[in-house]
Amino acid sequence: MKRKRVKGEYLKKKGKKIHRVKGVYPLPAAIYVQTYVHPRMLKKLEKAIGRKVFNNFICDKWQCSKLLFADTELQAYLPYTRKLKDLTSVQKALDRYRDVILKPINAVYAYGGKGIIRVRLEEDNEIEAYYWSSKGMNKKIFTSYNSLWKFLLDKRSDDDYIVQQFIPTMKVEDNATDIRLHMNRDGSGQWVVSDILLRVATNESHLSHQLNMTLEIDYLDNKFPQHQGETDESYMKESIIKVGLMICRAFDHAGYHMGDLGIDIGVDEHGHPWVFEVNTLPNPYPSYNYAAFTYPIEYALYLAAKKKKT
Hints:
The chain is of the alpha+beta class. 26% of the residues lie in helices and 33% in strands. The strands form 4 sheets. The chain has a 6-stranded antiparallel sheet with strand order 5-10-6-7-8-9, sandwiched between helices. Strand 7 (117-121) and strand 8 form a beta hairpin.
């Protein structure tokens, strides 16, 4: 690091093929973080090249939740979320909302719906738990909170969880929906929308990672015509983008240098958007829009061209 040289590899095109060339190279003029890097190493990199290391905060679900709740303007779009500490945590949430989602705090572990459990308190006070496995959807019934907690302890293993209010989202063909909003900084350093899609699940509660279909976001305006204004602009789309920009600014105000965020949003049956989670290691959803792949490169070039502040 003192010599400002690192071991690495670059991509070299030869003919129609792309080859990886390993070697020792100068430190990049800008760095786009796409995996966990220890904070001490990030500080060393930023000391060497300046504030040109972006996506420098890989947060888990609880860290992201606390960051968002610190923004008072965002709180109206956030479902009740607490860290699952003990039986009382889940009991309080169920008594208040009767339907909750338990999510592993570690975003990597929860990828594809793994480890996520939906818990419902029925009218007869029976407790139902639903979770996804390789064999499909599983359901268990409990007659007491103690038996539920024993089950959760076995399922949780050593992983920490959050408990979150379940939000019934608008349905398409009786299936749950959510929205993937991808926000990026562009070649001028500004936050922009690179992709926005309405995703339709294969069930009614998002527990499965499988998708039934994706739809254009304008579908929402047909679903909620009462929200449409007099202009030609899509009210629902603009309201969702507004929430996305608020989230980007919350990260900015917290002092983190982000340039690529994947945001999962649900719209309830009244047309109100709810932020389910923010992914700081987003995987762009395959679509005909490649901006989510190209904007980070454009932003890195923008940073690289800036002079390091001394």
